[in-house]
Write a structure and sequence with these properties.
The chain is an alpha+beta fold. The protein is 42% helix and 12% strand. The protein has two domains: 53 residues, no CATH class; 83 residues, no CATH class. The strands form two sheets. It has a two-stranded antiparallel sheet. The chain has a two-stranded parallel ribbon with strand order 3-4.
Length: 137
């Protein structure tokens, strides 16, 4: 078994500030979100499968289901959301939350309400259309 996130605070400090892995320690390895049945490890022999997997190869098949990607402007993982939106078909939207990192959006009070409001608005709009279209057929 190999750790997914840094196991110590010192190890986490070796990552750039506000990076996913640097902040993941604070989230997954402290009382903030730590859980005894969530060891934050993966089986090393699965690395080849993980490396071969791509969430983006078939993302166009999601359409016509709505796709909303919510991302913080300070997230080092933003390229993944950009790539998903680039390859997806409509309806799709990339929504940015100013000043948030990747991990900030998990539970930080200053960012979560904005994400929830956007989710609510987006899916009320797009799922209402889907329900109407289904009812018409």
């Amino acid at each position: 078994m190999v750790p997914i996130v840094p196991e110590t605070e010192e190890e986490a400090k070796g990552f750039p500030p506000r990076s996913l892995f640097g902040e993941a320690y604070d989230y997954y390895r402290t009382p903030r979100a730590q859980h005894p049945r969530a060891p934050s490890r993966y089986v090393f022999r699965s690395v080849d499968r993980i490396a071969q997997y791509s969430s983006y190869d078939l993302i166009h098949l999601i359409a016509p289901r709505p796709l909303l990607m919510i991302h913080g402007t300070d997230a080092d993982t933003a390229r993944f959301s950009r790539e998903a939106i680039e390859k997806a078909r409509e309806p799709k939207e990339l929504f940015w939350i100013e000043g948030a990192s990747h991990v900030d959006l998990y539970d930080k009070e200053e960012y979560v309400p904005t994400a929830i409001a956007k989710l609510s608005d987006f899916f009320q709009e797009h799922l209402a259309k889907t329900r109407a279209e289904l009812a018409a057929h």
